[in-house]
Amino acid sequence: MICAGTGCVANGSLKVKDAFDKELVARNLQNEIKVVLTGCNGFCAKGPVIVVYPEDIFYQQVRPEDVSHLVEEHFIKGRPVQKFLYTPPAKKDAIPVMNEIPFFKHQVLRALRNRSLIDAEKIEEYIARDGYMAAVKALTEMTPEQIVAEMKRSGLRGRGGAGFLTGLKWELCLKVKGDIKYILCNGDEGDPGAFMDRSVMEADPHSVLEGMIIAAKAIDAHYGYIYVRAEYPLAVHRLQLAIDQAKERGLLGKDILGTGFDLDIEIYQGAGAFVCGEETALMASIEGLRGMPRPKPPFPVYKGLFQRPSVLNNVETFANVPPIILHGADWHASLGTEKSKGTKVFALSGALNNIGLVEVPMGIPLKTIIYDIGGGIKGNRKFKAVQMGGPSGGCIPESLIDTPVDYENITKTGAIMGSGGMVVMDETTCMPAMAKFFLEFTEDESCGKCVPCRIGNKTLLTILERITNGEGREGDIDLLLQLSQQVKDASLCGLGQTSPNPILTTIKYFRDEYEAHIHEKRCPARVCTPLVKFKVNEEKCKKCGLCYKNCPVGAITWEKGKVASIDLEKCTKCKTCIKNCRFWAID
Amino acid sequence: MSCASPCTTPKQVAIPADDGITPEMYRKIDVIVAAHKDKPGSLIPVLQKSQEVCGYLPHSVQRHIAKGMKISPSVVFGVATFYSFFTLVPRGKHVIRVCLGTACYVKRSEEIIDKLKGELGIKVGEITQDGKYSLEAVRCLGACGLAPVVVVGQDTYGDVAATKVMEIVKKYE
Amino acid sequence: MAKLTIADLKKIKEEYHANQQLREGGFTAKITVHMGTCGIAAGARGIMDAILDELNKSGRKDVAITTSGCAGLCSKEPMLTIERTGEAPVKYIALTPDKARKIFTEHVMGGNAVKEYALVVGHETTY
């Protein structure tokens, strides 16, 4: 096992792995001895560190040229090589190492490769970690066709949600003739619960710029925009600094690094409109207009910004580009599944113990993300569903928790991969109310251009409102299903084509909750206030008095050993009692 | 987008006959317009910077910008009402923004909004009588790790409880 | 500032690489305060102030202080990472200014990691 922690990688552990692979093949031992990359053991000062199992022998500071000798001695002659031997210090309730903590153990950082390692405001620190080396390679050694071919072979798919092959998009634009083309970066991360791109722009802005330089060379563009939403002031600040530094040092502007290639990049700040994440709306917005989508075709690679051929990629996609050019398509494709290559960054939030940003190989089971990386559900609650893909996505229930996370498998569940937001919900979340929340969002953010989205979403919302208000009617579920399908089929852009997904998936997996709301006028999660009775269930009450102690208005009477009761005259329906009750004893 | 034409504009505190835009502000807007008007697609940056100068974009300012940029006032109005970042009514001295992203919703940020509405006696999008506070609901701020999130002015507060939110707000005089 | 050539770029890479490893930079320790939006909202600036104050008081010139973006574990912010020359980096979580001061005294100055505030030792996986 060869350590692939950042420290060991910086000391050349990947080259040691290559040397091992070659040496083992040369000696025909590749089937008996397996070389695996692992997470950090915490012996970073001794790197690269290698552990041999089953003997549990540690080797330190191994260089590629030592590998042949090591294989000969250790694996053929069975004699551990004294020179490199390392005895780890005895462990006495020490701080755990990366490899022992599930949150870190399952992650592989590629797009986030510089996370917590570099100062985002210092270009030198980015350069020190191989920064702009891929741009050099692309500008000096590769033709646009070669860049496109490498990207296509890597299998990188757009990380913004739709999963279109990045290399193919570039190829289409390269083939279009045009004197002016644009390279655009989508940093309008509008899905609620998603903050991957914000983090990349804040922590590693140069990786986005470098990705854009490579893409610009591939499609022959000399002007670029980064569209960032107004809610991300720190990202704008750091990107602007990065652009200024890159210009000053000749990495942007005229004649980049003396290669004769020109590229200027400018930041365009959004003004708060979710629909601007859609590509044609985003371009309209840069043109200074209302951000309304237009029908496609013509696709933006033919007629995009200012009617010119344009390529728009998402922030995370661009951050993935430099290492692919530097290490090659095979390196990228070495992780992931058949159709979804590489890694994906997810923003974990909601009812989990560990909330944060994680990067994992494609195809990892959902369960590993939620229970190992996310540390399981917070408090004494049960997992109910995970929402993926924001307002365009859907909810995945517990029964599908073993689903491998890649584009195809997530789509099969009815949700979408989306840009990478994962909001985990426990049993205190009401599914019809959740669907209503998303419809409020899309109804508000619908630009109003096409009727199915403008009126359809409004109508869907009205139905959900009456269901959650306790006024649901017979047949409402079927009406929702039918109308949802029509809105999906008839809407102009991605917003309307996906906005009913939260309804469809919650009905598919949680139909019983809709039925409880409509037929029994009951909200199982006790979220929809009009359906909550605020009455103590005598069978479930454990007489603990927690509700009594926490009620802010003194509406609850309780004595030790007796069932509590709520005075509805005084009760303000604030639900503090429900939140504090551990036994679901308040109906 | 919420439509800001008169039919749905929240009941606003009467804007004084003079809308508070000084000649000095108009001069600043002229500078902004002059710097941008020859570049295609610059209306949004102009509106953003003008709003920084005036605090909001009353019709008088919109017409002034339209004239300066030689475009129809209806285009300016259309853009100004399309994007939620722009406001046509004045904001309070302290703007309270409550995040309504999914993660915050799951952690009950709606209850925070309800609490603020009750305590301040205003609806979302309105300003208190004394002009001290205005209340806004915002889209995901990307600080989901801290949900539910409330932003007052430039300060972000995480893990806010509905019962404690007024303690935060009262710190801003 | 002068424009770079490809050769300059490679030189910066070599020089800074050494610096990042702390070997030839003349530093014995590096303190990284994680300052993304989450970190700042959770109080990273207060942590930074406390560390700078302790550094001033100590008069040490061989401790580098830097910032980085989000460290990935938003719910445990504010965080900082301490890396002493020749040792693996240690990540500390859920800090307060007082905890940061204690970490400065005991770990940076004294060489003993503060176990109760530490989350993990080592580097993340990149390959």
Account of the 3D structure:
By secondary structure, chain A is of the alpha/beta class. Chain A has five domains: 99 residues, 3-Layer(aba) Sandwich (Glutaredoxin), CATH 3.40.30; 208 residues, NADH-ubiquinone oxidoreductase 51kDa subunit (Rossmann fold, 3-Layer(aba) Sandwich); 84 residues, Roll (Ubiquitin-like (UB roll)); 89 residues, NADH-ubiquinone oxidoreductase 51kDa subunit, iron-sulphur binding domain (de novo design (two linked rop proteins)); 54 residues, Alpha-Beta Plaits. Chain A is built from 23 helices and 16 strands. Chain A has a five-stranded mixed sheet with strand order 11-10-14-12-13. In chain A, strands 8-7-6-9 form a four-stranded parallel sheet, with helices on both faces. A three-stranded antiparallel sheet of chain A has the order 3-4-5, with no helix packed on it. In chain A, helix 18 runs antiparallel to helix 19. Chain B has two domains: 90 residues, Arc Repressor Mutant, subunit A (Orthogonal Bundle), CATH 1.10.10; 76 residues, Glutaredoxin (3-Layer(aba) Sandwich). Chain B is elongated and about 50 Å long. The N terminus of chain B is likely disordered. Chain C has 127 residues and is an alpha+beta fold. Chain C is 38% helix and 19% strand. Chain C is built from four helices and five strands, in the order H-E-H-H-E-E-E-H-E. Chain C has a five-stranded mixed sheet with strand order 2-1-3-4-5, with helices on one face. The radius of gyration of chain C is 16 Å and the shape is globular. Chains A and C meet through helix 1, strand 2, helix 5, helix 6 and helix 9 of A and helix 1, strand 2 and strand 5 of C.
